[in-house]
Specification:
Elements: E1 2-3, E2 6-7, E3 11-13, E4 20-23, E5 34-37, H1 40-48, H2 55-72, H3 76-87, H4 95-107, H5 112-126
Antiparallel strand pairs: 1-2, 3-4, 4-5
């Protein structure tokens, strides 16, 4: 996406290294608002309320939502909870279950202490190249 002639992603890791920022697409094209997603619930709300739109961005937001969740609870139960919360946000979105399956496949074989960084890496890989 170009904003004032400058290429910009629609989702990226925030400068704090922990949260994610998105362009709130509900306000486009009249206003450019950047929203911070710091928790699983923030990511779920962004998907459900359509702050993110389009299959690729929904998939990327889903993947980052899992990463935000495992930052606080990297256990198998925490991963399952994140999967359930995100799956309920927009059940008909094609990339949402794809992203959840990809994240589960990448994270479940790992010990919990390795899951957060792996989740961040996998979520970043789901974004479209510029």
């Amino acid at each position: 996406m170009n904003v004032n002639g400058r290429p910009m992603r629609t989702i990226w890791r925030a400068a704090d290294g922990r949260s994610v920022e998105i362009i709130d697409q509900r306000l486009l094209p009249h206003e450019l608002v950047i929203a911070r997603l710091a928790t699983l619930e923030d990511a779920a709300r962004a998907i459900k309320d359509m702050a993110v739109r389009g299959a690729p961005l929904i998939g990327a937001t889903t993947a980052y939502g899992v990463a935000l969740a495992v930052a606080t609870d990297p256990s198998d139960g925490g991963l399952e909870h994140a999967t359930q919360v995100l799956a309920a946000t927009r059940p008909t979105a094609v990339n949402l279950p794809w992203a959840l399956a990809a994240m589960r496949q990448a994270l479940l074989p790992l010990p919990p202490h390795q899951r957060h960084q792996a989740a961040i890496d996998r979520a970043a890989a789901t974004r479209r190249p510029r």
